[in-house]
Amino acid sequence: MFTVRSAEPADAAGCAAIARGSPDYFTDYAVTEIATEATSQPTWIAADGDDLAGFAIVDRRSPRAAEILWMAVAAPLRGGGIGTLLLGHVLRDLAETGVQVVEVKTLDASAGYEPYRATRAFWERRGFIHVDTIDPPPGWEPGNPAAIYIAALAPTRRGTQDDGGRLHSM
């Protein structure tokens, strides 16, 4: 039975191993970054006992916004609901601490790289909206356009609506 918990420093090697086991998605550079960021950023682990099945690493950008920097499920376990379980837990935890908006970047469809079709579909099925494409974003290699997705965890505007749907400030 898979459970989700906050990562411990010793989990960083397991996160890197999951990424290393998915070379279609993660470069050697990314694996190194994951191993480092799993100890320096908020990280969640999906596991069955001591066996790591997936991870998510988050950067808290501001008190009300966060970015999911890295997320992966071990290749043999994909499609079994572990990613959905993990993401749900991460989003609940972030919302409980005041995060209202979450961003994620992934390889854009314009890159023509087939493995990321399922990745984009994963985010879209879970309510993330593609809002922009940057080619390349800072820190990415040229020719790797990033699809920027966002999801609102809570309302971001204050106010009330009258019967005509117009927003009035409070």
Account of the 3D structure:
There is one protein chain. Helix 1 (12-20) packs antiparallel against helix 2 (28-40). The mean pLDDT is 93. This protein is of the alpha+beta class. The protein has a 7-stranded mixed sheet, with helices on both faces. It has a two-stranded antiparallel sheet with strand order 8-9. Helices cover 28% and strands 32% of the residues. The N and C termini lie far apart (47 Å).
Summarize the structure.
The chain has helices at residues 12-20, 28-40, 82-96, 115-125, and strands at residues 3-6, 43-48, 51-62, 65-73, 101-107, 129-134, 146-152, 160-161, 167-168. By secondary structure, the chain is an alpha+beta fold.
What best-fitting shape do the alpha-carbon axes yield?
globular
Number of strands: 9
Secondary-structure-derived class: alpha+beta
Strand order of the largest sheet: 1-2-3-4-5-7-6
Average pLDDT, to the nearest integer? 93
Could you give a short account of the major beta sheet? 7 strands, mixed
Order of SSEs: EHHEEEHEHEEEE
- Poorly predicted spans: none
Determine the number of helices (DSSP H or I, runs of at least 4 residues): 4
